[in-house]
């Protein structure tokens, strides 16, 4: 049987304008359904072959993307470096940049989709879709199924793989790093595998088999970042491709999910507050779908299946947080749902996984990680508190029904494997070399009291042997929108900063989802100010050494959403209608319009003192249009110049840098050039010695 996705909570990727993929195998959370809904995928090392030879790398720290930078001081393009003198007169930053961009290819680890089916493992090797026997998965003995170069795309990679039940076909979703567009290819498996069909702009897709043992592919089509249509297709002698469903409400989107036991294909229709699910019988896919519960405003629910029962994760009832309910599969309506398990207060459901006799919940309670193992035979619950250093889950491929494997990570610590074994009823930790960061750094869990008395959690990292933390530089991370957690996946440059004496503080402000649905519903901009004041008050750095990084909807630096008012009044933009639930409707509601004006960055620019800012944007970003960012930067420049006409004593004009990257992928990962530019910006603005940080960055390239 095909290994099914355990990523039960998986869909709002397609409605939020800020999704970032930390790793291709990243956990999903209940409100954004997060980074990748696809099959449990694990990290796999392979050498880059001709597909990427002499081209920028596509790993987290291995892509060199040219950019255009503008400085507020003259707003003219910064001159390009002379290649002939590149090796001469370079400072530490440029030397490291050259080092990053000329590393041997085999030193990099590419993170790619992988799926097990029958006795084979399907994955990407170099520029090819391949498969190998399960026992030979780590060897170089594999069969090439398709060469991605045939698609004539720039730097293609496989985002998702699905294998037909009888293993006659394999479907793979292909993307590039510089675009959110995708292509789904269908490869017929035979002695000479060949591509039989391809579909553009596919979002989610799943295989089922009908009564006549014919493979049927269901897939959703995405147009202008909106996903409203479901198609089903067959191949071979009985080839067809027909539209199966169209969602008429433009504020909703559609997502497909196959229950782990393959019994039902679910059509999930949802926006940010409301959902509706239809069931397609996995044994009779041509029969009409069955509605579980008609959409009710404010009610979210997601469905799994086991032994003729539906397990429903939903926020229905009080309190309006997620709870687990169940009902018989033949009586799915809401009046038949029975409460099965209730989450504690301040708890976020990160993921859910179904097994034959157990249900495993991956939770974040009061910003700490837990795993709850529920015995389905006796309704017993075993709650496991995970190590306090852990900040995020990475769900792993699970081909063994007796075990539940996963990984834990933090911003400064690489992923570490753990396995819960049902028979023993115990959690086992990966043995081997202990990462030295466990002894050389500290992780602290703090709280800041906001102006309304609410306690806001913070996670702080610093070196164990740091003396006088008040004199150390501080980098504050913040997000706080869409009910999404602040990204806390491992990044080598973050570890390098801690090694060089920096304090990293992650502020889990309201608007995010760290403490459950209510934490999103009560978003408040006052939290960040309280967090920074608390950090300073407890001896962590000082205002003159404090820096801030944010992304997208909390935009200050990377792909920022800066012109909220004008964007939300432009209904021609692809996501405006979907975003009304999050931001309000300024076109029809004067209260909404005035409220947005109060916090919209663009609307609040005025002549005053501003800090230096490094902004990264993308030329063809459909989610956050470049026009709004350029307008913001121009208006900010004018305000700074106006303020400079009557400066106070000692006033220095801030450095405002707009770094425009090519491409249109809002969630693009950081390139070497961007990382070094941002770190250079931090060190120069604070007047810090950068020698050791870049030496350490070179060292951590070989993790």
From TrEMBL:
Species annotation: Equus asinus
Entries under InterPro entries matching the protein: AB_hydrolase_fold, Pept_S9A_N, Peptidase_S9_cat, Peptidase_S9A, Serine_Peptidase_S9A
Keyword tRNA-binding: no
Enzyme class, UniProt record, top EC level: hydrolase
Cellular compartment(s): Cytoplasm, Cytosol
Highest taxon, organism lineage: Eukaryota
Source lineage: Eukaryota, Metazoa, Chordata, Craniata, Vertebrata
Name under which the protein is recorded: Prolyl endopeptidase
Gene3D superfamilies per the UniProt record, alphabetical: alpha/beta hydrolase (3.40.50.1820), Prolyl oligopeptidase, N-terminal domain (2.130.10.120)
